[in-house]
Write a structure and sequence with these properties.
The chain is mainly beta. The protein contains no helices and ten strands. Helices cover 0% and strands 48% of the residues. It is globular and about 40 Å long. It starts with a strand and ends with a strand.
């Protein structure tokens, strides 16, 4: 079955950096665009970044543009999210997602606090 295993979250001070990873399985990873979403406490799940399958074009939410970078390694079935200049409002559970599938992983918690 389709699975996503996210990792790399943690507690970081404002201005710090984290790199999230997501290993996917159960489908042909290289055929699908991949994305990162996040959900803050008492908030709705929102799209953070997308990377396409072939050209690896990327797109970002305005709130993270210039600070976050999404990338992928098709040989490792892995998508990454490099997060720099983190802000308290980036605090959320982060999920990876394959465009076209309904499955979700457990997510990884990111907390930005001094």
């Amino acid at each position: 079955q389709v699975q996503f295993v996210e990792s790399g979250g943690g507690l970081v001070q404002p201005g710090g950096s984290l790199r999230l990873s997501c290993v996917a399985s159960g489908f042909t990873f290289s055929d699908y665009a991949m994305s990162w979403y996040r959900q803050a406490p008492e908030g709705e799940r929102e799209l953070v970044a997308v990377i396409t399958s072939v050209s690896e074009s990327t797109n970002y939410a305005d709130s993270v543009q210039g600070r976050f970078t999404i990338s992928r390694d098709n040989a490792r079935n892995t998508v990454y999210l490099q997060m720099n200049s983190l802000k308290p409002e980036d605090t959320a559970v982060y999920y990876c997602h394959a465009i076209g599938w309904n499955d979700w992983g457990q997510g990884t918690q990111v907390t930005v606090s001094s």
